[in-house]
Write a structure and sequence with these properties.
By secondary structure, the chain is an alpha/beta fold. The chain is 43% helix and 11% strand. It contains 18 helices and 13 strands.
């Protein structure tokens, strides 16, 4: 698209995606995609808030007929504050400055200080003046200047952007593209959108509910779950993320989706949960997560002075302490204890090992089933994630099945084998809308479907020693077609006859060659 000086042009989501993705060329080959994503996404954020601020200021100045005092008061009531000297346009005018990277850092710091409630800590891990990441002064300045020039092409003023929520959607698109480039590192910050949609639809959030992701990454799963509430913004989002840079992405993601009330904490959920109320874990209607698979050294091996396991002050491990070498059930236990008793719903992505591994994991799994917490086990295809090619499962726990809950009479578990339903792409498999719709419809109807889904009574699971391996319950075996022996014999005779004829011709050719010689 043309420069912002072309007033009549509208900005589409494709324009935003195109410019932002092209801006990546400034960094490709210099730093890893998992790192340069921060520079791109923060520059998109800066351009967006600057354009919004500028348009509102122009409108108010016209309305107030140049009354600067009233204008200042009006601007202070905006959703955010853009300090003088910190706008994108002001930085663009200084793009040739010898210290342009430092000037960008100063602008970001000023923006954060002026909007602490929403943006505190967001820019802590980004440095536009970093010699380590962006090179020596000359190269660094050129890269920052190129970035400013790329984003200058976008006009992100309200009314100029065609689609509603285009900025937020473009942000998620970019995170998805960066995840594709980042490979295994992508698991630190992104859950594939089609998987997020499955989890969001499984937990069926309602207006007024509290939604939590204790391993929230860049926040996309939280936002996808919030979308399920509908047009109303009558929900409350909570999250915690251990990686500082990814935590910043989550806060920006909320801001760009106009979700100001989200509480996103920075810290280690398993060892230092920060979503607490009083001296207890905060309780939520919905808990969803795609936690790190089989996290090693997650904790859980701390001892008291007399050599006994150190108790968790929130009593999350009352069913057993998950093994220190595998953190899957640590996250699952935390999520269940964070769900409201008799009301909360939980959906978690996990490796298949959680379904059948023994030891302490087997004991925890057995107790969860005996407590009637487990509602469904859903097998997804392999190679859905950038970070791993292994097949994964979604476990749905429902505390409404507890004694006193509205589903306490439900004693069975729904198993769905959706592992064969996917579209094969170049580097990974994709769940299409028809695949996700089939999963959700089956989950809601809770009926047996041959070679796809089965509702299994507690007794059968108990007889299987609480092993949840899906093939034990959903038979997907496809019998081979019967062989027509007569047809095969006839085909063999035909091939043998053709072979005799070929040998005759070969002999004839060889004789001719010998005569020529």
């Amino acid at each position: 698209m043309s420069d912002q000086s072309s007033k009549s042009e509208k900005t589409t989501m494709d324009d935003i995606k195109s410019v932002a993705w092209a801006a990546c060329n400034t960094f490709r080959g210099v730093i890893d995609p998992a790192e340069y994503k921060d520079y791109i996404l923060i520059m998109l954020f800066l351009k967006f808030i600057s354009d919004v601020w500028k348009q509102h200021e122009e409108e108010y100045r016209k309305e107030l007929k140049g009354d600067e005092v009233r204008l200042k008061r009006r601007m202070q009531r905006e959703r955010f504050v853009l300090p003088e000297g910190a706008s994108f346009d002001e930085l663009y005018e200084k793009r040739d400055a010898a210290n342009i990277g430092e000037l960008v850092n100063q602008a970001l710091e000023a923006i954060e200080n002026a909007n602490k409630a929403k943006l505190e800590g967001v820019f802590r891990n980004i440095d536009f003046n970093s010699q380590t990441k962006l090179g020596e002064t000359k190269d660094r300045n050129r890269r920052v200047k190129n970035l400013l020039q790329d984003f200058k092409k976008l006009d992100l003023r309200p009314g100029k952007v065609v689609e509603d929520d285009a900025i937020g959607e473009a942000y998620i698109y970019l995170i998805e593209r960066f995840a594709s480039d980042a490979g295994k590192k992508a698991g630190e910050f992104y859950t594939p959108r089609q998987v997020s949609q499955v989890l969001a639809k499984l937990v069926q959030p309602k207006a007024g509910e509290r939604i939590c992701d204790p391993a929230c990454g860049s926040g996309s799963l939280l936002i996808e779950t919030a979308y399920e509430v509908g047009d109303s913004k009558n929900f409350a989002l909570f999250g915690q993320e251990v990686n500082g840079g990814t935590h910043a992405l989550a806060k920006l993601n909320m801001f760009l989706h106009d979700i100001d009330g989200a509480k996103i904490e920075w810290g280690d959920t398993l060892n230092n949960p920060l979503l607490i109320e009083g001296d207890k874990l905060a309780a939520f209607d919905i808990v969803v997560a795609n936690p790190p698979f089989s996290l090693k050294k997650w904790g859980g091996d701390e001892k008291t002075e007399d050599g006994k396991p150190k108790p968790d002050r929130f009593n999350r491990w009352h069913r057993g302490i998950p093994p220190p070498s595998t953190g899957d059930y640590a996250f699952i236990s935390h999520m269940i204890e964070s769900a409201k008793p008799k009301f909360g719903r939980v959906a978690v992505v996990a490796p298949h090992g959680v379904l059948f591994r023994g030891g302490m994991e087997g004991k925890i799994r057995q107790k969860l089933i005996e407590e009637n917490m487990l509602d469904a086990v859903i097998g997804l295809p392999s190679n859905l994630f950038q970070s791993t090619s292994i097949p994964v499962a979604v476990l749905v726990f429902d505390r409404r099945r507890e004694k006193g809950g509205e589903l306490e009479k439900r004693k069975d578990v729904l198993f769905i084998d959706a592992s064969r339903d996917y579209k094969q792409a170049k580097t990974q498999n994709i769940l299409e809308s028809s695949h996700t719709a089939k999963i959700i419809e089956t989950f809601k109807k809770r009926k047996n479907i041959e070679k796809y889904a089965r509702v299994v009574p507690f007794k059968e699971i108990e007889d299987n020693d609480f092993n949840l391996n899906i093939p034990r319950y959903v038979d997907t075996f496809e019998a081979e077609a019967e062989i027509d022996v007569k047809a095969v014999q006839a085909e063999i005779k035909q091939i043998e006859a053709e072979l005799v004829e070929v040998k005759k011709r070969m002999t004839s050719y060889l004789r001719e060659l010998g005569a020529d010689a």
